[in-house]
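Weekly structure sync, notes
Attendees: PL, DS, HV (note-taker this week)

Item 1: DUF3185 domain-containing protein
DS walked through the input record. Source organism listed as Mucilaginibacter rubeus. Sequence as pasted into the shared doc:
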Amino acid sequence: MNKAIGIVLIIVGAAMLIWTGFTYTKKEKIIDAGPIQVSADREKTVNWPPYLGGLLVIGGIVVVATSKK
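Item 1 (cont.): predicted structure, written out as tokens:
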């Protein structure tokens, strides 16, 4: 079980090192006056620091290395 968790940590950490964030589109209302509604698409960005991915990779390696066989 610990070995599987370690492998997942390594995979997620490597993915976080490769992709440092993602962007999504959110529809926001600009004007809402009775029957008249105006909305616009806004791009939102989610970023995480690259060192977080490195820490997950290192943590996964430690978990795999210390897990019992």
